[in-house]
Amino acid sequence: MFSKHLSVNYLSANHPTLIAGVDAGGSKTVSWVGHCNRSENGPVVPIGAGISDAGNPRVVGFETAANAICRSVRLAVRQASEDRTLQADEPERICIGAAGAGRKPEQDELKALIERQFPRSRVFVTDDALPVLAAATPSLSGIVLISGTGSFAWGRNQAGECSRAGGWGSLIGDPGSGFAIAVAGLDAVARAADGRGEATVLVESFCEHFGVTEPLELIEKIYGPEGTRKAIAALSRRVVNAAEDGDPVSIRIVDHAVSELANHVATLNERLDLPAGATLAMTGGILVNETRCREQLIAAIEPMGLSPLVVQDPVAGALRLAALPSKEIPNIDLSK
Hints:
Layout: E1 17-24, E2 29-36, E3 45-52, H1 57-60, H2 62-82, E4 93-98, H3 104-117, E5 122-126, H4 130-136, E6 142-147, E7 151-156, E8 162-166, H5 178-194, H6 202-210, H7 218-223, H8 229-233, H9 236-244, H10 248-272, E9 279-283, H11 285-289, H12 291-301, E10 307-310, H13 314-322
Parallel strand pairs: 1-4, 4-5, 6-9, 9-10
Antiparallel strand pairs: 1-2, 2-3, 6-7, 7-8
Helix pairs in contact: 2-3, 4-13, 5-9, 5-10, 9-10, 10-12
């Protein structure tokens, strides 16, 4: 369950310190608690995990997000205390990587709400990209590419300069995301059903997904209560599967999505002037679970000389950041 490679320089070597890392996303919030080892440069040892509801303040609101985050931390502490006696029931330090909290005002608001519930903890709030990079490399330099329901790329070079690409949201554009792939699939289904476009197996596949028999019945499903952003994004799996089975329409959709993601990476790689071998940390359902998309992307970015790495548990990076001295945690404001 827990990542094995969490070695960092510790904030103290005098006694084990209970710390927490949190990955707060648009669908769920995951917390790990762990002990800083007595010996410097030893591993953070995760000892408990907790999962709660969505913790993206832009999706569920700041109060609800803060409650989900705090609940997940308490669950992690509770699990840790089942097998051992803890010296504290509240982590000394909590680092939260939160989607929807990339700007300082958002981080400050979320931090204040969490501090009300954990008044004795030192709370750090950052965006959801920095923990991914921290999970991939202790240097905290490289590029993070996220493609799940939404998409986003962020990078940091060795001089501490940061830049971003994408992450504009579904209305302005989340190219290469699960939602974008699904919407492209829905467009293809509508065109095929009307006779305006090429025939595609997605018509039957999408109807099967929603339990309907006619394409026009999809309208009620998509625009009704079932048609949440997350539910629509789930259609991306059907598009990728159809591409793997040779459906030409689906192949073009997936190829376009991968091209957009590669463009995100190329833009940041050039802007930040990253050295050969710099880390490309990839996470999110499209890149972690969809082998075709991941392998196509790796092939597309090969000329850039980056070292791609899949990060399955961004929360591991949040836990690693929680163990760092305060001065070593970069201040990330995505509005700059």
